[in-house]
Design a protein that fits this description.
Layout: H1 3-9, E1 13-15, H2 26-37, E2 45-51, E3 72-77, H3 84-105, E4 109-117, H4 120-123, H5 130-143, E5 147-151, H6 156-170, E6 175-179, H7 191-204, E7 207-211, E8 220-222, E9 227-229, H8 232-243, H9 249-257, E10 264-266, E11 270-273, E12 276-279, H10 280-286, E13 290-295, H11 299-307
Parallel strand pairs: 1-2, 1-13, 2-3, 3-4, 4-5, 5-6, 6-7, 7-13
Antiparallel strand pairs: 8-9, 10-11, 11-12
Helix pairs in contact: 1-10, 6-7, 7-8, 7-9, 8-9, 8-10
Length: about 300
């Protein structure tokens, strides 16, 4: 394993086995996660993704699983809401559940991230007070030591523009979560939409996280849903290259669509796609902003890397 690829992949895959298409039981999913933590590929494993409403269901595993160091890491999925009032009510419940979970398990668990889909009247730029509401809401996360990754209720670019404005005024209060697939072809964003999100996160100094649809290292067609799936190597290599302004937006389209393994190269000192190169040190720096992706399978992405001979 070359250092550049290891740096690109470290802590990259958040395990979301509770969610479709896997839809595992909590017992099976948390035991899978515990097993992956002890496996040879554990260095690629990020957080366990779980709804805030189900945190209390993990209490029986405190002594059996959570006593093994290092602490179990969690990304909590918020309840969201259809409007601002419902969202804020649900957010109080989310934060209550996180606080109780932290108190119950202490240093055996680490919860530092909350993923949430915003309601239209919180993230709609056409509403005059939406930006101030968004800023006030994001301040709450800062006070309770949670970093929010926000999913757009409508056009992703509208939310990205707001987050960019807030970042320029107040610093990094939140990240952007991009849904890269789903159970239907319509859930898969186009290459240009993915590129636009990556580029906007770079320009706006916004942390990036992806979810769904990134099961394979390189793009491939999924006959079950009738759509071409994006590759996680493509997405995150494009992100780190863009972070250091080493990849023009036009070339980002080509990189995201490239399914040819021999167009990619990894050594201990650098990674490259075509003529575009980035050092291992710069990859490590950029990964602070281009964080991870959620996947209902940890084994499938690892198997894909092995098939390519990259793992």
């Amino acid at each position: 394993m070359f250092a550049s690829l290891r740096t690109l992949l470290t802590d990259l895959i958040d395990y979301a086995g509770l969610f479709p298409p896997a839809r595992l039981s909590l017992d099976q999913a948390i035991r899978n996660y515990a097993r992956y933590r002890q496996g040879n590929d554990a260095w690629m494993l990020g957080r366990f993704v779980i709804p805030a409403s189900r945190l209390e269901d993990l209490e029986p595993y405190d002594e059996e699983l959570f006593s093994v160091n290092p602490p179990f890491s969690f990304s909590v999925l918020g309840r969201g809401g259809n409007n601002l009032s419902e969202f804020l009510t649900n957010l109080r419940d989310d934060l209550r559940d996180v606080a109780a979970f932290r108190k119950r398990h202490g240093e055996r668990v680490w919860v530092d991230m909350l993923e949430v889909r915003l309601p239209p009247d919180l993230a709609d730029p056409r509403l005059p007070k939406s930006t101030s509401h968004l800023y006030k809401t994001l301040q709450v996360f800062f006070m309770v030591r949670l970093f929010p990754f926000c999913e757009a209720p409508g056009r992703p670019q509208d939310l990205l523009d707001q987050l960019k404005q807030l970042s320029s005024q107040y610093g990094e209060y939140a990240g952007f979560k991009l849904r890269c697939g789903g159970l239907e072809a319509s859930a898969f964003p186009s290459t240009r939409q993915v590129a636009a999100a990556l580029y906007s996160c770079r320009e706006g100094h916004i942390a990036f996280k992806a979810t769904a649809g990134l099961h394979h290292p390189l793009p491939c067609f999924d006959a079950a849903v009738g759509a071409r799936m994006h590759g996680f190597i493509n997405v995150f290599l494009a992100g780190v290259l863009a972070y250091h302004r080493l990849l023009p937006i036009e070339q980002m389209f080509r990189l995201l669509d490239d399914d040819q393994p021999d167009h990619f190269s990894f050594t201990n000192t650098e990674a490259s796609w075509q003529k575009y190169r980035i050092t291992t040190a710069k990859i490590a720096e950029a990964r602070g902003s281009f964080r991870s992706f959620g996947s209902c399978s940890f084994e499938e992405p690892c198997a894909g890397l092995r098939t390519l001979g990259w793992l």
